[in-house]
From TrEMBL:
Coiled coil: none annotated. It comes from Neiella holothuriorum. Keywords: ATP-binding, Nucleotide-binding, Transport. This is Urea ABC transporter ATP-binding protein UrtD. SUPFAM superfamilies: P-loop containing nucleoside triphosphate hydrolases (SSF52540).
Length: 248
């Protein structure tokens, strides 16, 4: 059991760009069902870390294991997605001219695409899955609306729903609440918390109030390594963390 019981196990990962160490002996251990928040000042290496997990960037050294025995460093980006790691980037990218329902249908694992939509032939279990995700993301009432007509927050939830259609084990979510109203932020917090357990979630977030509201484990990245880990209150009272944030 190379992953030592963790769902995601990154050990001693380093990567340099033109001699600059963007990730420097990074260690990250994520348990199944966790909702882990990753914070850190600009340039800390958060995006690069996500790129390594999804296979977009190859580290120079270290190891990265997913599940019991999947070596992420030997897999291509599509293979990693196939293995159950889904990523949501900051900006929502939904199909604006399709309905909410069609967006989910088109994202279904093994979807045959628009043809299936036109024929409106779904198996009962596929319909159940779409229904379940519509409930999770709170867009049941909007199922027949064009995605382009949704609010910014609703588009973000729809995109999370599109990832959920593929049954990911691990969801990587990048700053989902940027540009949201307070109400939308609360709803997003509920959504992410409800996903943890059934899924595992890694959230990169700048909004400290939002991270605190989730009341989960927080990892602070700085200069490509872990500076502190713990609850938001614990990491915020850590002298090293205070220094990094005041010095930004
Ligand atoms: P964060 O997401 O925490 O803001 P990044 O992972 O984007 O940090 O960047 C970490 C550091 O690596 C930054 O100094 C950034 O300029 C540098 N960096 C990231 N990607 C590249 C790249 N492709 N080429 C050169 N430098 C990069």
């Amino acid at each position: 059991d190379v992953s030592k019981g963790y769902l995601l196990y990154l050990e001693d990962i380093s990567v340099s760009f033109d001699g600059f160490k963007a990730i420097n002996n990074l260690n990250l251990y994520i348990k199944e069902g966790e909702l882990r928040c990753i914070i850190g000042p600009n340039g800390a290496g958060k995006t690069t870390m996500m790129d390594i997990i999804t296979g977009k960037t190859r580290p120079d050294s270290g190891s990265a294991w997913f599940g019991q025995k999947i070596n992420l460093l030997e897999m291509s980006e599509p293979e990693i997605a196939q293995a159950g790691i889904g990523r949501k980037f900051q900006k929502p990218t939904v199909f604006e001219h399709q309905t909410v329902f069609a967006n989910l249908e088109l994202s279904m694992a093994g979807a045959k695409g628009v043809f299936t939509t036109l024929m409106a032939r779904f198996s009962a279990s596929q319909l159940d899955h779409i229904d379940h995700v519509l409930n999770q993301i709170g867009l049941k009432q909007q199922r027949n609306l064009l995605a382009g007509a949704l609010s910014h927050g609703q588009k973000q939830w729809l995109e999370i729903g599109m990832l959920l259609m593929q049954n990911p084990k691990l969801l990587l979510v990048d700053e989902p609440v940027a540009g949201m109203t307070h109400q939308e932020m609360d709803r997003t917090g509920e959504l992410l918390s409800s996903l943890a357990g059934e899924h595992t979630v890694i959230l990169v977030e700048h909004d400290m109030d939002f991270v605190r509201s989730l009341a989960n484990q927080v990892t602070v990245l700085h200069q490509g390594s872990v500076l502190a880990e713990g609850t938001m209150d614990q990491v915020q009272s850590d002298k090293k963390v205070v220094q990094v944030y005041l010095g930004e």
